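User: Good morning. I'm curious how magnesium ion would be positioned relative to this chain. Could you predict the structure with it bound?
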Amino acid sequence: MYRPLDVDSVIQYVRDHPQAGAHVDTGGELEAIEVGDGNLNLVFKVFDRTSERSLLLKQALPYVRAAGPSWPMPAERAGFEARALAIEHRAAPGLVPEPYWFDEALKLNAMENLADHRVIRFPMMEGKRYRDLGQTIGDFLARTLYATSDFALDTADKREIMRGFFNVELCRITEDLVFTEPYLPDAPRNRWNPRIDADVADFQADEELKAEAAKLKYRFMNATQALVHGDLHTGSIMANDHDIRVIDPEFAFFGPMGFDIGAFIGNLWLSGASHEAHSPDAEARASYRRYLIGEARAAWATFEAGFRDRLREVSSPSWSSPAFQDDFIASVLRDTAGYAGCKMLRRIVGFAHVADLDSIEDLDDRARAERIAIRIGRRLVTEHARVAAFDDIVAIAADAMEVRDA
Ligand code: SR1
Ligand code: MG
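Assistant: Good morning! Here's the predicted structure, ligand included:
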């Protein structure tokens, strides 16, 4: 029967589960810590002190952790994560944690503990550079998005997989928090830095912006192109100096491919904007922003090359037309721009913010960084349908971040 675990009961849980024996000595000296820093779940690391081996157990709570029991959220979301992680692991082995088992009753996923990896958002606030970040994420995207698309799958197979991804409640969160509430002046869950009141009022009155955001929302709800991760921000990526993994696919559903790519790119630009305060030295700031632009370019280039490569072996002759393929990639690029913009704006005005910006203590400093992010986000949303090359996306970000010769 479902019950939320704690650092004591999780140890007993591990001792009682023979599957855990492949990863720790279930009769040995075990120690557990809870490390969940996201908005939704409990996350336990269980260490075997004798062998130094470990595993990670992620348990869904029946409510939004960041809000408490007043915002109920079905714990069934753990099943979406289990199914998505299994598919991602098959399509992109080594780029996600290895899944061990799913406990349906406890809504718990057991998986590889990435022991010396860190969520990259926080080191990036200190200017950390990860080698091959963009290339790795581009590779992950090409592999997972292609493998679950109509280009790789027979129609019956794709529809069978889709049956497991009616992720209603988590899609509703995205529809509300990303596409709807940030554009409403009186949405009760919205919050923002009072120093940007005028900027927020201005964008909430922008009819063109709201119309483009609505188009992107409609596409999010209706374009069942592939199994998307659904929440691919820099808090969903863990890395050490030589290994990068994508975590947390609980928001997975069949949606537009550009939603994932845009989430990653938008979060790179949020990081770049936040360095307005995190890197007071102008040279260091420009240099870090150039690094981010390089990784964004690498992500798109790797995704496009990997996807085009795979398109050589499409499941139906309908998809072999070079003109069709060019048109499809161009549409993913436009979506990437639009979703990057939406994902930026929601982190400044909506319910769930990002540490990159919220960690800037001085509200005036934070406002300067937020205005840069708003400028990028607004242009990406309003201009996304006119984006014809990835350099158009870079130009919008580089202009607002005042990076010359990007
Ligand atoms: C109520 S959940 C808020 C946000 O956290 C997740 O990371 C998603 O981005 C979601 O929108
Ligand atoms: Mg998450």
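Residues 38-40, 64, 66, 173-174, 177, 231, 352 surround 5-S-methyl-5-thio-alpha-D-ribofuranose (ligand 1) (CB under 6 Å). The first strand starts at residue 30 and ends at 34.
Let me know if you'd like a different ligand tried.
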